[in-house]
């Protein structure tokens, strides 16, 4: 009997320790889920019945509660009542409700459910706020809920846009809420400010456990400020909508903190997350982002770029083909993408064909006319394009002034043109620098088609801006994690190695090869005037072609039988 009592005491003690932990695991099979303020709860929702959730022992100094529930990609519903009403429920992967407490209220109930066939793993938490704290979504006029603390997220290939409802000032229990549009003085909600935060999940990790773990860092105000990157601060006069550059396959969490500067109090909205891709779609899903056509295209492009990185200046025509391919391919891809609705794979094939034509055209221009300045202008502009792209890849690109397309493209073009102007007096150095930097970056692009890396967005962001008229409003922040540091080191190593090798090898040699057409013409004249040259006796090209055609015709003619063919004379 004593042993049984000891076992009971041990079980009760263990349950008490679990209830006091920061994370509570369980399921909803019992039909009732109990919550505690500020503690995360993991549980599973099934389709047939909505589950009732309850919170007991609410403190008297708590004015309102915000409940939020998160899942990776399956929708869940949170509702004030068992019957789902549009103005009393919220459905999504990140859903929340605000509970305005009545005087003397110490218990709160609500309902959870899912419409999906498969069970949904969820994480939920309740946060409490006092009468001095602003109420997120308290002045909602756009969405269904009367008070809506949720962040609504939309994405496409180019940009991800978040929207949220304006907040209202806090107030005590049993008191009417302050009017939202009664005035614009310091005693109204127009004094509130909104800080928008962005948090990146680890690269190449699409697991549910990783998402739910990191979501815990984006729930409360202190955690958000400590872990996330503040992107922009909005005033009550600004539109409550912010756009970001989409990063397919990269998990990103967004949250907004509303701040009352008069009382120095804050409250957090319900965080929203996205991978800018679908977990359920077949083609283009998060699990299969890299297209085969992209991998083939950028792998071949990287092989050519790797050769140019180390031998481009020596093999001048190959480098010109590489530069012409880049210029023609870039502009042709923008043109056909904006004018035609054809598929991506066809775009890539046509871009490869057009780039090849552009490369051969630049080689032909050099061979026939031999104008070094034109060729080096193209080389310098390509290097300037990459340097300008790197400049706007930094936080400088997120300055408000560069959200204007006119200012952006003028500044971008000036930086690109500045590079060939600066190196006008040392063209060989410019050419070798271009070979090393551009050739090695092609390897980075090839790696980006197989692994997720932020360095590929150096040029992709510029391409997006050229293709999409609304991309100017997007913030172009990207994560910079372990993979990116490794690839950046590889890029730098290849560039420095290629530049150093070519500078040492070309020391003492002519700066550039001579004009090919002049050499060919001089060689032709020498052959004509020099009888002792064996090539002098070579027939002209027209006669040689005619002789070849005659030989080919003889292959198809029937062989004549041997013997006398002349008729006898009588």
Automatic annotation (TrEMBL):
UniProt signal peptide = 1-21
Q: Name one GO biological process term.
A: positive regulation of insulin secretion
Where does this protein reside within or beyond the cell?
Membrane
Membrane disposition: Multi-pass membrane protein
Keyword list, A-Z: Membrane, Signal, Transmembrane, Transmembrane helix
- For whether the record's keyword set contains Zinc, the answer is no
Q: Which residues cross the membrane?
A: 296-313, 320-340, 346-367, 374-394, 406-423, 430-451, 485-503
Major localization listed first in the record, in broad terms: membrane
One GO cellular component, as annotated: plasma membrane
Q: Tell me which domain of life the UniProt entry assigns to the organism this sequence originates from.
A: Eukaryota
Where does the TM7S3/TM198-like domain start and stop, copy by copy? 299-503
Q: From the record, what ranges are coiled-coil?
A: none
Listed Pfam families? Ig_TM7SF3_N, TM7S3_TM198
Task: Please name the InterPro entries in this protein's record.
Answer: TM7S3/TM198-like_dom, TM7SF3
State what protein this is by name: Transmembrane 7 superfamily member 3
Native organism is: Macaca mulatta
Q: What is the lineage of its organism?
A: Eukaryota, Metazoa, Chordata, Craniata, Vertebrata
């Amino acid at each position: 009997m004593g042993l049984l009592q000891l076992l009971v005491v041990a079980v009760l003690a263990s349950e008490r320790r679990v209830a006091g932990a920061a994370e509570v695991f369980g399921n909803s099979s019992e039909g009732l889920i109990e919550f505690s303020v500020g503690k995360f709860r993991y549980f599973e929702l099934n389709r047939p019945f909505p589950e009732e959730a309850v919170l007991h022992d609410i403190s008297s100094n708590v004015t309102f509660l915000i409940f939020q529930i998160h899942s990776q990609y399956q929708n869940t519903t949170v509702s004030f009542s068992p019957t789902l009403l549009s103005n009393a429920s919220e459905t999504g992967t990140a859903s929340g409700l605000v509970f305005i407490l009545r005087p003397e209220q110490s218990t709160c109930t609500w309902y959870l459910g899912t419409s999906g066939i498969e069970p949904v793993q969820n994480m939920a938490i309740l946060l409490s706020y006092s009468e001095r704290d602003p109420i997120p979504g308290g002045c909602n006029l756009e969405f269904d809920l009367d008070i809506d603390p949720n962040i609504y997220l939309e994405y496409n290939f180019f940009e991800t846009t978040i929207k949220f409802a304006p907040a209202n000032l806090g107030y005590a229990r049993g008191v009417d809420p302050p009017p939202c549009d009664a005035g614009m003085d310091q005693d109204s909600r127009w004094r509130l400010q909104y800080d928008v935060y962005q948090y990146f999940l680890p690269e190449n990790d699409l697991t549910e456990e990783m998402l739910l773990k990191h979501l815990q860092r984006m729930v409360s105000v202190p955690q958000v400020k400590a872990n996330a990157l503040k992107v922009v601060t909005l005033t009550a006069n600004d539109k409550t909508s912010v756009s970001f550059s989409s990063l397919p396959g990269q998990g990103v969490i967004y949250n907004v903190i509303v701040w009352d500067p008069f009382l120095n109090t804050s409250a957090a909205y319900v965080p929203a997350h996205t991978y800018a891709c679908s977990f359920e779609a077949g083609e283009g899903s998060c699990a299969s982002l890299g297209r085969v056509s992209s991998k083939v295209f950028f792998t071949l492009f990287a092989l050519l770029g790797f050769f140019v990185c180390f031998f481009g200046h020596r093999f001048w025509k190959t480098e010109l083909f590489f530069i012409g391919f880049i210029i023609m391919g870039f502009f042709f891809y923008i043109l056909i993408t904006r004018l035609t609705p054809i598929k991506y794979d066809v775009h890539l094939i046509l871009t490869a064909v057009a780039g090849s034509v552009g490369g051969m055209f630049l080689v032909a221009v050099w061979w026939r006319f031999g104008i070094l300045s034109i060729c080096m202008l193209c080389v310098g502009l390509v290097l300037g394009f990459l340097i300008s792209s790197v400049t706007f890849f930094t936080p400088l690109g997120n300055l408000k002034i560069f959200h204007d397309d006119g200012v952006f493209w003028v500044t971008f073009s000036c930086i690109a043109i500045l590079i060939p102007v600066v190196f006008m007096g040392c063209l060989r150095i410019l050419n070798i620098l271009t070979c090393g930097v551009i050739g090695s970056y092609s390897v980075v692009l090839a790696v980006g088609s197989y692994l997720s890396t932020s360095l590929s967005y150096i040029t992709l962001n510029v391409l997006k801006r050229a293709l999409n008229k609304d991309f100017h409003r997007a913030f172009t922040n990207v994560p910079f994690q372990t993979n990116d540091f490794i690839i950046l080191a590889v890029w730098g190593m290849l560039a420095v190695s290629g530049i150093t090798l070519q500078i040492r090898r070309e020391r003492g040699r002519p700066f550039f090869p001579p004009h090919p057409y002049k050499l060919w013409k001089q060689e032709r004249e020498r052959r004509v005037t020099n009888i002792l040259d064996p090539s002098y006796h070579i027939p002209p090209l027209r006669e040689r072609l005619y002789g070849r055609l005659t030989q080919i015709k003889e292959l198809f003619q029937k062989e004549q039988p041997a013997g006398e063919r002349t008729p006898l004379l009588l």
